[in-house]
Amino acid sequence: VQLQASGGGLVQAGGSLRLSCAASGLTFSRYAVGWFHQAPGNKREYVAAISWNGDSVNYADSMKGRFTISRDNEQVYLQMNNLKPEDTAVYYCAAESWGYMGPKAAAKEYNYWGQGTQVTVSS
What is the pLDDT of residues 13-22, one digit of tens each? Predict the structure, then answer.
């Protein structure tokens, strides 16, 4: 199983980016997916998650109103608007392995992780 996160880049504060997460080796549409980020020197932190069928989503408080997680049969997306310098981090997508689960905020709930994509927000 491999997860591939993409879409990161350099953007000015107030700008937008859309991250994508694709998977190979599993039927992605059966699994809940989460996004996490990690800034240098910091722990990996929860960003957002979506249930296996997309009907339920959850966000970290600091992302509510700015980030939107969504999915189709093939990929999971994280639309990030009104980006702030403190959003600068490597963003990881992760998938749980039980199947047919709701959104999960804890990293320990996820068994499959992508390699991460760098998001840099300049002030």
Answer: 999 999 999 9
- Report residue 73 CA to chain centroid gap: 16
Task: Report the 3 state secondary structure along the chain.
Answer: CEEEEECCEEEECCCCEEEEEEEECCCHHHCCEEEEEECCCCCCEEEEEECCCCCCEEECHHHCCCEEEEECCCEEEEEECCCCHHHCEEEEEEECCCCCCCCCCCHHHCCEEECCEEEEEEC
The overall average pLDDT reported for the chain is: 96
Alpha carbon distance 82, 16 (integer Å) = 6
Q: Which residue carries 């957002």 as its tokens? A: 48
End-to-end CA distance of the chain: 37
